[in-house]
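Morning F.,

Quick status update on the modeling queue. The single chain you submitted on Monday has been processed. Sequence for confirmation:
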Amino acid sequence: MEKNKRRRAIIIGLTAAVVCCAVFGALVLSKVVKLNHPRGLKGADISSYQGTADWSKLSQNMDFAFIKATEGSSHTDERFDYNFKGAREAGLYAGAYHFFSFDSPGKTQAENFISAMEATGMTDGMLPPVIDVEPYGEYLKQPKPAEEVLPELEDMISAIEEKYGCKPVIYCTGKAYKLYKAGFEGCKLWERNVYYRPLHNDWSFWQYTDTEVLEGYSGDEKYIDMNVFCGDEEELKAMCISTK
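Structure tokens below.
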């Protein structure tokens, strides 16, 4: 009898532990429970999805910002000029990023990005340009082969380096890192992982959450992405480029 009681107690305990683990895992995956609480210099990446930003307010909650500039060979984010100038004028370390298209030549993508940057008249002292490389749409299930992506990516990297005197930062998901890492050589890395710290130490920036809510913007998107820099302010300042 006692043996059966002990067996039942063990089974009940194990079942409860499994249920608790499953519930905790579900809460983490749904981002109700957040495991990422890094220390260091923090910054947002922002686009037109966040609507109109009040940089005098928004800048109080961060040290740096990356603004979406362009996508592919022809698209420019409608809030780019306003956001980039607003971030710079608010005194933030600021840079801009380009969403890389797998269906467009790297050279013309670079031309699109550079054109948008030069139109701001505020490139001197900015953080290095960023190329956002991540599978999207149909490429989420069937990623484009590295042998097709890397030549175009390398063309864009070369054009940006020629224009601004530095290699761009590469933003990537874990999946993109595995697929296209060979094309990131010499570039600083900005990795997205909203569940846990990246499993390697190659990163300079880490996007640790995509569900932050801050005061200072009012768009269709409720949340804003937040990032941390792997270094101190002197190191962040040293990354800024001179275009004069």
